[in-house]
Amino acid sequence: MAPRRKKIYEGKAKVLYEGPEPGTLVQYFKDDATAFNAQKKATIEGKGVLNNRLSEYFMTGLTNIGVPNHFIRRLNMREQLIRQVEIVPLEVIVRNFAAGSISKRLGLEEGTPLPRPIVEYSYKNDALGDPLVPEEYIIAFGWANQQDLDDIVSLALRVNDFLSGVFYGVGIKLIDFKIEIGRVWDGDFMRLIVADEISPDSCRLWDIKTNQKLDKDVFRRDLGSLTDAYSEVARRLGVLPTNATNIKPTLIN
Questions:
Q1: Which of 12, 26, 86, 228 could disulfide-pair with 17, CB 3.0 to 4.6 Å?
Q2: What pLDDT does 3 receive?
């Protein structure tokens, strides 16, 4: 019997385990769904399988166009091997259309096209509700320096160009998304790479013709089956696992 792997970290949607080689981790995708800073929770069977496959698809695509990221390979239906990184304590948000918090802050109707992609940052801290922070705070508190921020914006906009094109090709509008960025060292040289995941958990996705929501807003706003929405995204992209259909949510009190 293989020895039990050492758990490194557990978040709301994923667990990180010690990897088989130095500098690697195993990322396990859970079936848990959360919203409103985990005030709303459910277990949705098969969600982790879908997100594992979808994140593999997007990270592989980024690798193919030269955008550095932590993905190495998928191990099985729920796990992937990734590079170990030091996470920059920011969520990097890219918005193409108004939705969610920016609509509330600025009184914009959801779906309003923005003049250009807008990059925002929130400080990764669940206890504080991941507050939005300006660049001045980020630099002052040492979370990243100006060169880091320039590199992060460049990475984020390249990811946006790639994802927007991929989704548009299958009839989906990329409203917004968030990514995390990690630091890796090659000797004394540090570079920034895309980390965490890219999936419908971290993107707002609307059908181009109907504006039907195909992302976690389905769960947040009780708009139907989250599994059906994620499965539709995977089906259009051609990455739907055959055993991830007909799966039901189980609500947690």
A1: 26
A2: 54
